[in-house]
Amino acid sequence: MIAAGKKVVLRGALPADLEIYLKWMKEGEWLRYDAPWDNMSEFASPAVAKERFTKRFLNDSSLPRQKAIICLKEDQNKPLGWMNRYGDKRFPDAWLIGIDICEDDYMNRGFGTEAFRLWIDYLFSNSDIHRIGFATYSFNPRMIRVGEKLGFVHEGTDREVIYWQSEWLDRLHFGLLRREWEAR
């Protein structure tokens, strides 16, 4: 286990998670919020999906982890989604993070906020990273609210960066510095 809260735990991926992961790649409300214009065809083939899942989730043994599976606290075999972290080698003291709650019945109930807080606490506590940030799009007010609740600062907006479904969308950038995390 990576971290535990009142509602969720974060843990590493297990081989048994493959089936639910493949299901998530094809269905769920989350697909409308996580860059829905990206091509998900890479998951059409079970063999390709298994290879990518293994590469992305099962081979993550470094600390702090790059990925975490979000599970119900009372049933750690019930995955709800995942957290991730990534970066740019030009800026080694800054990471970006992401979250997806992939089970529709658990959206808008505080599970994602708690998982996001646990992930931030884990990353800052297990590294000397200076900054953690995330980006989201203007059509995702829930993610914007999660960032605000957890102390992230809106650092800027790429205005009308992508045209999607007959509308120009903004990409919003948020960041949290170590000293801001320590102060809260």
Polypeptide structure, described:
The two termini are 24 Å apart. This protein has one domain (3-183): Gcn5-related N-acetyltransferase (GNAT) (Aminopeptidase, 3-Layer(aba) Sandwich), CATH 3.40.630. The chain has helices at residues 18-24, 46-58, 111-125, 141-149, 178-183, and strands at 3-4, 8-11, 67-72, 75-87, 94-101, 131-137, 153-164, 167-177. A hairpin with a 3-residue loop joins strand 1 and strand 2. The protein has an eight-stranded mixed beta sheet with strand order 1-2-3-4-5-6-8-7. The protein contains five helices and eight strands, in the order E-E-H-H-E-E-E-H-E-H-E-E-H.
User: Cα distance, first to last residue?
Assistant: 24 Å
**CATH level-1 class:** Alpha Beta
Residue share in helices?
Answer: 25-40%
Outline type: globular
Structural class, by secondary structure, is alpha+beta
CATH H-level superfamily title:
Gcn5-related N-acetyltransferase (GNAT)
What is the rounded Rg? 16 Å
H/E topology pattern: EEHHEEEHEHEEH
Strand content: 25-35%
Average pLDDT confidence is 86
Low-confidence stretches: none
Q: What is the multimeric organization of the chains shown? A: single chain
* Order of neighbouring strands in the sheet with most strands: 1-2-3-4-5-6-8-7
CATH fold call: Aminopeptidase
Give the name of the CATH architecture. 3-Layer(aba) Sandwich
Biggest sheet features? 8 strands, mixed
Key terms for this structure?
single chain; 184 residues; alpha+beta; eight-stranded mixed sheet; 5 helices; 27% helix; 34% strand
Brief write-up:
The chain has 184 residues and is of the alpha+beta class.
